[in-house]
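Subject: Sanity check before I submit

Could someone independently write out the structure tokens for this chain? I want to compare against mine line by line before I put it in a report. The sequence has 350 residues.
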Amino acid sequence: MIIIGVDFHPEFQQIASVDTDTGEFQEKRLAHPEEAEKFYRALALRGQPVRVGMEASGHARWFERLLAELQWELWVGDAAEIHTKRVRKQKTDRQDAQLILKLMLKDDFPRIWVPNWENRDLRQLLWHRHRMVQARTRIMNQLQAVVLNEGLRCKRRLWREAGRQQLESFRLAPWASRRRHDLLALLDRLNPTIIELTQAIEREVEKYPETRRLMTHPGVGPLTALAFVLIIGDAERFQCGKQIASYLGLVPLEDSSGKRRRLGHITKQGSSILRFLLVEAAHVAARSLPEWRSQYFHLTMRRGRKIAKVALARKLAVRLYWMWRKRWDYEQLRKFGSHAGQPESCNGVE
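---
Independent answer below. Compare away.
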């Protein structure tokens, strides 16, 4: 078998490889993408099994597709954990590739879970709709500013037919009129696109029984449920709700030592879009569930509105995790609780 450690960069990659049968060691610097593809296809002609290891990074999908086409094994490692295993203070591309190779040979490579291609493509659907909605919001805010400058405050009434006619009737300076016209044209183009993407998400939700189960929780719609299932991937990867909160970056930074305990803001590690959706969904749940609303107001008085929203988002993430793992709907979650079956509550929680 040939084992290859890759230090991947957008424009090139530094590799260190060894043939475990002959002990042949090789180092190369390959430019992207032509030189790298030529090297790996030539190596595939030798007919030996190959295992490639690299740190988790972006801009590498073409490389992953190439290795999948060659039917080679790809190991993706945790970059932060690999960094902690570096002993020498010098850091070069050659040493990084050698370190990855060394960890793979020692069977000490910190592999991480990698979603399949279908999962990653559906994530693009979520991101595309999210960015389109953000663009529409920026356009709508600019049009609201135009109305405010004319002495009116319409808020949501501006997007009704009468409000649109009133906006178009304002007599503005030439370039201000051009700006209004272009913004309205962009808005008219974005609305059908967002509707189409939303319908595509609703169709994808029907393919996953987990998402339909999660949608029984108040505040959780198709977008949040699908994002949670796609980004978590497999609920069995996590042993408890605390790990879910840490994976999504909803736990505080900590710098404690001895008797001193210091907590900071949340880590914000993990998926930013799922954190955003969980905060939005938790805010909706706080408006519909009395116990959530009471907790939200209590936390707002003590710690402020932002911390209260994040706390409810974490609570919602943990609840969705247990609903998924236990195959419960919302009514079953309310009846048994998220800790049913554990030693401290072996008969469930009423």
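---
OP: Matches mine. For the report I'm noting this point. The longest helix spans residues 117-149.
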